[in-house]
Target: Signal recognition particle receptor subunit alpha homolog
Amino acid sequence: MLDSFEILTTSGVVLWSKTYAPTSPSIINSLITSVFIEERTLPGAGVADDISAANNPPYKYDQHTCKWTTVKELGLIFVAVYRSLLHLSWIDKLVDNIKIIFVELYGDQLRKPHTTIVKCAFDDYFDQQIRQLEKTALNRDTKVAESTALRAEAPASVTQDFGNEPPPLPGILSRGASKNNYKDLTSNESTPIATPDTSRPSTPASHLLTGKGGPGGKGSRRARKAANTPTAYASSGDELQSKRDKASKPAVAKKGRKWDADGLADEDSDTPLDYSAPANGATSGEDEIKERPGAMKEIDQSSWGWKNEKGEFFLKDLDDQVDSILASATAKKTDTVTSSTGIVGSSISAIGGYFRSIVGGKTLTKEDLEKPMKAMEDHLLRKNVAREAAIRLCEGVERELIGVKTENFESIQTRIESAMESSLQKMLTPTSSHDLVLEINAIKKQRPYVISIVGVNGVGKSTNLSKICFFLLQRNFKVLVVACDTFRSGAVEQLAVHVRNLKELTAREGTGKVELYQKGYGKDAANVAKDAVTFGAQEGYDVVLIDTAGRRHNDQRLMSSLEKFANFAKPDKILMVGEALVGTDSVAQARNFNAAFGNGRSLDGFIISKCDTVGDMVGTLVSMVHATNVPVLFVGTGQHYNDLRGLSVQWALKKLMSSN
Ligand SMILES: Nc1nc2c(ncn2[C@@H]2O[C@H](COP(=O)(O)OP(=O)(O)OP(=O)(O)O)[C@@H](O)[C@H]2O)c(=O)[nH]1
Model:
């Protein structure tokens, strides 16, 4: 458990702080005095070097430990204080990330001479990091728990090996892994800075900073949303809205909506969820939605999208901003490292290290490879690859290596690289061409090309459908977007917002044409899809893009309605969106969706969404392909309409083999 975090200048002025448990000011005062004022030599202390928190020795005082890092150029110190009894595996990452984010946000202001920041609204950014590191720690903990359970069944000689990763340790997780674990003892307001109370008394404040409050001072996205109280959201914003609504209303027992075998709502079972236009026959476009009070009319643009300097729309939130700050800092670091290495570079040395005991001139046997392959399997598990997929990949590598005569350590390492590369390549490379543009052009004169998007709830179906739509619009196609999520309240409006954004982009760029087809809620999705395809053909659309309701892959009833859907809509492509974050469940998700369409119909491809949020842990794409032999066609890399990429096997390989 973290007790407090402070950002202060080397002269002792506190720029920002957050306190979770009361701590004595003398802890940080003592750190400053010992390390920064008296410049006592601590082994490895890096005041002058801006080195990472992990490389600065912890400073211990009165049952507390301080982890810190510095930015010499700006004279800044970042300190986290926690009880020495605890081992917080994520603490160095927190300190380093906070340094990167703070410098990115306020660096320019701090560089200006004679500037004083009166108040800095950094709380949101700090909380975001705590949340994110908590989530990562939780994922790792779950994975290792699974791994440990499986190892318990393994022979005693097989020991658990975490490689370079520290084993999971109690910290945030030991307190229940909930985002409410921390009680903020400071107010919700950011800590005022540079006041006598918050300045460290032991040193002169030579470096007072003033200014307008930095980027955070403009108000967080969340704060703006709350202020605007919008009626519809383009992305998960509607979830926030519903949370606010719930909080402000007295609890009323809610009657469950009943669904029949086709996923249709029993009309009498509950209040209709239809907030869209009255379904008065074949409707297209968002105009009719607008006619309904409280639907689209009052949308405040700041609630659903941002515009960049060119005036282009994109969806963005705090997570996105922080991720891109950290990613660009990592990219700068990686550039320097990788410039002297190959695609995988030194990263594979983590696994190559297991071969050090094998001397040159030996012909490799299965026994020689047993330990290194186990290490490689663990490495892949840490990358979010499901166990059975990791085993299959390792078997491929093992097959290539057995019987190979070793020369020296370097040559084994190169062989592992190429064996793993070819094993991955075999798994990930589609066996037939999937050039969407070619396929659409081939049939567009006769009928529209029909694409439907399926997947579990919240994985990014609508967002990635919109990205595909944007891709098609840029290629001048005429696209009909169909709202077949007739189930979740707000889904139609959400899609309408995407269509409106895309229309605006299209109008500016003068390419393609897009309309929305929707029949509101509670209708049979298969019938809506069929009607939409007929409508699309009549109106000369090139592509019909169908969004569907999210469903749990193990919900028999909702999954069975996919068969009727496929029969009625007759899609040319059924694409499943799988979330990169999903982990081991990916195999079951992929298999169940692949088997749901009946009549020999199966999935045609995956879109792996949210790859930007998992760093190097892109194993989900391997797991899903392994489970089904269905190729990954696209990866989602963010929340902007152009954050969609075709799969590059080299990119996946580099991520999977890196030792981070
Ligand atoms: N960072 C990131 N976020 C994404 C990506 N794709 C989608 N999202 C976000 O994921 C959230 C859910 O996306 P939706 O498109 O609403 O998901 P959905 O599957 O249609 O949701 P349901 O209709 O409720 O099942 C939104 O906040 C999106 O902005 C991606 O590639 N990267």
Q: What stands out?
A: The radius of gyration is 27 Å.
